[in-house]
From TrEMBL:
The keyword Amino-acid biosynthesis applies. It comes from the Bacteria. NCBIfam families: ilvE_II, PRK13357.1. Pfam families: Aminotran_4. GO terms for biological process: amino acid biosynthetic process; branched-chain amino acid biosynthetic process. The modification N6-(pyridoxal phosphate)lysine is found at K196. It comes from Zongyangia hominis. This is Branched-chain-amino-acid aminotransferase. Keywords: Amino-acid biosynthesis, Aminotransferase, Branched-chain amino acid biosynthesis, Pyridoxal phosphate, Transferase. Pathway: Amino-acid biosynthesis; L-isoleucine biosynthesis; L-isoleucine from 2-oxobutanoate: step 4/4; Amino-acid biosynthesis; L-valine biosynthesis; L-valine from pyruvate: step 4/4; Amino-acid biosynthesis; L-leucine biosynthesis; L-leucine from 3-methyl-2-oxobutanoate: step 4/4. InterPro entries: Aminotrans_IV, Aminotrans_IV_CS, Aminotransferase-like, B_amino_transII, BCAT-like_C, BCAT-like_N, BCAT_family.
Amino acid sequence: MNNLRIELAKNLKPKPQDETKLGFGDIFTDHMFLMDYDEGQGWHDARIVPYGPLPLDPAAMALHYSQEVFEGMKAYRAEDGRILLFRPQENFARLNRSNDRVCIPQIDEEFALQALIELLKIEKDWVPHLKDTSLYIRPFIIASDAHLGVRPANSYLFVIILSPSGPYYKEGLNPVKLYVENNYVRTVRGGTGMAKTGGNYAASLKAQVEAHEQNYSQVLWLDGVEKKYIEEVGAMNVFFVIDGEVITPELVGSILPGITRKSCIEMLRGMGYKVTERRLSIQEVAEAYKAGKLDEAFGTGTAAVISPIGHIKWGDLIMDINNNEIGDISMKLYNELTGLQWGRIPDPYGWVVEV
Ligand code: PLP
Ligand code: COI
């Protein structure tokens, strides 16, 4: 790429020696991608440089008004050594939808993907080898203007950093425990829920802390208006299998349109399951549970992969789902999704991109 400047690090950091100890998002590689935006000039000065602190004015608008967006994706190491991405075009397309929601200028999606591939070629030795590990990719854009009035910024910084990571949930494939959040609201229709922007996650922290204090992994969010309909979990979309039918909340604007969600819907339909996207109330799930018809529940996400849900508390009702074991559909999906991502099975969808 002739409009991408590359400055290589003089000293390389040691790679993690024991990949069994990899946590999530703690270690960063030797290089990062940067690109600036200035009004009148557009996006410019794309570069790969040694990883390090960002030069940022204390008045930078992202720090005050959260004008920022981010993405989460992974690079996977196949058994034959190839480095693979899963539907990366979808992440950059979603980044632009998030940009639109918080008034950040659009990026060139194809250019961003090519720049990421260049960065990954430089950092390929950082992609871990152990099963279920990957190189987590975090693209993000922040408003960098030094200005304290509330308005869209005139300058931005687009950054991509990389982090060799293990599983996001310590439970791995063991079912997680959730309770239905009754007090706090994460987002509402018309808000920013459909965008991947930091404020949504800040809004979810207090509920998450309280959930951890009660020994729950996460909370299950209901819609913020009627507090009736299931939305999602902190970092994953949710699916319920009721009487053989797979149901996932429809995208009403307050839910993040997950790429794993979209892929799972397609894969499940390919396997012959009936999959419905519609509003699903917690009452309906509770009734299905009481009638013995709640077969399975699981979450989907880049970091979370397929995460079985074994226990949901709603008020006084405890729903123990599938005896707290991973269900058949969750297992099949997990095998197909991770099979594609790690290049273990052929890709009939054209979703996998080789670095
Ligand atoms: N919902 C939220 C709030 C998330 O942060 C994520 C993770 O990105 C997801 C759902 C799942 O989205 P994806 O499958 O694109 O990773
Ligand atoms: C992801 O799944 O990539 C996410 O962004 C989730 C999270 C770590 C916020």
